[in-house]
Write a structure and sequence with these properties.
Elements (H helix, E strand, L loop, with lengths): L1 H24 L7 H20 L5 H6 L16 E3 L14 E4 L11 E7 L2 E6 H7 L1 E6 L2 E8 L4 E6 L1 E2 L2 E2 L2 E8 L2 E6 L5 E3 L4 E4 L8 E3 L2 E4 H7 L4 E4 L38 E5 L8 E4 H7 L2 E3 L2 E6 L19 E7 L4 E3 L3 E4 H7 L8
Parallel strand pairs: 4-16
Antiparallel strand pairs: 1-10, 2-16, 3-4, 3-15, 5-6, 6-7, 7-14, 8-9, 10-11, 11-12, 12-13, 17-18, 17-23, 19-20, 20-21, 21-22
Length: 363
Amino acid sequence: MYSNITGSLLAIYSGLRQIRGELYRIAPMKTALAPIVAPIVTALLLSMIMLTSSFAQPEYWKREGWKTDFSKTTIDYSEIMSGGPPRDGIPPIDRPVFAKVADYKELSDRDPVIGLEINGDARAYPLRVMIWHEIANDVVGGKPVTITYCPLCNAAIVFDATVEGKALDFGTTGKLRNSDLVMYDRATQSWWQQFTGEAIAGEYTGTLLKFLPARLESWAEFSKRHPDGKVLIPNNPSMRSYGRNPYVNYDISSVPFLYRGAMPKGISAMSKVVVVRGKKDETPYVVTLEHVRKNGPVKHGDVTVSWKKGQASALNAAQISKSTDVGTVSVVRNTGEGDKIIFYDLTFAFVVNAFHPGIKIVQ
């Protein structure tokens, strides 16, 4: 009976996802039908997600084909919910293709990119591409890395992909926890929380990925700093509507999507915040983007957080390049021998509160 019920739910659920995907693929802004029908289908889809979330348990996931050792975990599995697509339904990029910065003309100056430099190898990962794939497995400057972007949390994070001497590559589970991307490694099928870099289920449970310093910046800034660098381009330009934002007006909405946790107090859940993480057991320093914009540079110990205009939001207008200006954050640490770029994250207040309940947010 269990398999019959879940099978029927998943069949309906799959059909709704296909309908919604087709409506948006046809060009939602160009037809009269899609904008009317798409929200209805989305509402039905959300209902199905909430219904099927009652089956968010290891036995059900094993029926989906997972080989994960679910006996090992650091979380309550009831916190996991379906994000919609199945495993790798949001396809990670495993064989990234790049163009030379000097030759590439597809990006506007304001387009947001994840800028990364390792051992003199500088690469830009445009959010117009990453928003459709969320994960890119790459080797930069001889180091295996995993570039990630979770749109629902606006979390652009780069990890060292080497764990216990072994280079891992990652995919999307199709699951969320606290609205954040749950990844998996293909070697052990352990599940990893993108925002924290921690393995939350499986063989690697409790293991932490190493954060690598990267910048969420404008294309103009990256290309000026690295004219001889490389930029990620779509393997197949017709695969997705690259340049279009599938999460229109998300960053100005009042509530997060697919989130059922506690909301932060004294601040809007969707307020943008800068998160600066210290050592493993240190409490992160969190400050609102608005505070940095109005009062910056902001100093916290030996760390300086600054802001300047010129970068478009990836989660506002339908066309990313035409979106509102959220600017670029820079975080450096004074080492006594000059400023060193350090890892930071630009996310929403609800995300920080979900993973660090009650944490102080400077406003």
